[in-house]
């Protein structure tokens, strides 16, 4: 060993440690409730009693990291259900029944269905094994010292029997009228809230038509309508309603983070190359086809705010590895009116 004075391992602070530092004057009571996956409910009563005597409950749930069966999430640790491991859902439901506001915090390796907690939690904070500084970050979000600005990289399922799914699914994968099971997620890909609100207005398109070898530009104004600073994430999704090969209902083709003080506005412009609409055709070559495209400026894959239609014109055009893969965003102060 080159550094024998350094012990093996990393000292990771628990969320209790970081919350104690974040709220030095608070009286924090910790009750185990249950283990990650042991199904033990002997501590349930103590946890509920502590909840009833508290002003707020922070329910910390999730996974134990591991490999090949030594954890509940990690390589070789598959799950046959997207319910929380062990008896965690029973604990969460009991805490919700306590009558005290519950903030559900997830330290997990996969998205879990949360049952009634989706609508009954005072707030939900999702983290995916956040690393050595993760509990410090969560404490800062819970205290309000930091405005959260993360967005979901996956969809959170509504029910535990949902198969791993993606917002990129074809239309049949996203319609509830072809099945008695509604596939709509509880929270869609790209979803995320913060401590302020934003208004999206004044959508403009530079051209209603563009050649299959050109580009077009959209612009919108984003305004922070709340009382504190925050970051909005403007996401651009492409919907191709008619193509020679079945396409996903929508594809994320670009995004930008817009940091705004309370009351501040920003004009956001996005230039979209026609290449972005390319797909692998029936002959195995990448092609841009003429026809209508729907551009959805959205806060998530399930929350489109502004929509525009642009028609690509001219012949179908094959593209190679030099194609432009992403939409390009720019920002400038919005004009005052």
TrEMBL record:
GO molecular function terms attached to this record = hydrolase activity, hydrolyzing O-glycosyl compounds
The record ties this protein, via InterPro entries, to: Cellulose_deg_GH3, Fn3-like, Glyco_hydro_3_C, Glyco_hydro_3_C_sf, Ig-like_fold
Q: Where would I find the Fibronectin type III-like domain in this sequence?
A: 232-301
Alphabetically list the UniProt keywords.
Hydrolase
| Coiled-coil residue spans | none
Please give the biological process terms from Gene Ontology that the record holds.
carbohydrate metabolic process
Q: Which SUPFAM superfamilies match?
A: Beta-D-glucan exohydrolase, C-terminal domain
> Which sequence ranges are marked TM in the entry?
none
Do you know which Gene3D superfamilies this protein is assigned to?
Glycoside hydrolase family 3 C-terminal domain, Immunoglobulins
* Family statement drawn from the similarity comment of this UniProt entry: Belongs to the glycosyl hydrolase 3 family.
Q: Please report the name of this protein according to its UniProt entry.
A: Fibronectin type III-like domain-containing protein
């Amino acid at each position: 060993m080159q550094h024998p004075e350094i012990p093996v391992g990393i000292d990771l602070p628990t969320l209790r440690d970081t919350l104690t530092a974040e709220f030095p004057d608070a009286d924090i009571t910790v009750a185990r409730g249950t283990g990650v996956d042991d199904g033990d409910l002997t501590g349930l009563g103590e946890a509920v009693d502590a909840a009833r005597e508290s002003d707020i409950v922070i329910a910390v749930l999730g996974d134990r990291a591991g490999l090949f069966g030594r954890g509940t999430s990690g390589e070789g640790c598959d799950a046959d259900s997207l319910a929380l491991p062990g008896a965690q859902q029973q604990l969460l439901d009991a805490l919700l029944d306590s009558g005290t506001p519950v903030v559900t915090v997830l330290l997990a390796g996969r998205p879990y269905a949360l049952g009634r907690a989706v609508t009954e939690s005072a707030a939900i904070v999702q983290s995916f094994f956040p690393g050595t500084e993760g509990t410090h970050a969560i404490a800062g979000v819970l205290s309000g010292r930091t405005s959260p600005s993360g967005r979901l990289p996956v969809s959170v399922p509504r029910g535990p029997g949902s198969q791993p799914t993606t917002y990129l699914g074809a239309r049949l994968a996203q319609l509830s009228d072809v099945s008695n099971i509604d596939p709509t997620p509880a929270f869609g890909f790209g979803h995320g809230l913060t401590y302020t609100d934003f208004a999206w207005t004044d959508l403009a398109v530079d051209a209603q038509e563009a050649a299959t070898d050109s580009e077009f530009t959209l612009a919108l104004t984003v305004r922070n309508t709340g009382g504190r600073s925050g970051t909005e994430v403007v996401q651009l999704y492409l919907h191709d309603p008619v193509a020679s090969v079945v396409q996903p209902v929508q594809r994320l083709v670009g995004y930008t983070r817009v940091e705004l003080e309370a009351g501040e506005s920003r004009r956001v412009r996005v230039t979209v190359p026609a290449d972005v609409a390319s797909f692998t055709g029936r002959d195995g070559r990448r092609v841009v086809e003429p026809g209508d495209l729907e551009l959805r400026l959205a806060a998530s894959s399930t929350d489109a705010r502004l929509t525009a239609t642009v028609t690509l014109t001219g012949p179908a055009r094959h593209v190679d590895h030099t194609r432009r893969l992403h939409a390009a965003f720019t920002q400038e102060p919005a004009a005052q009116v």
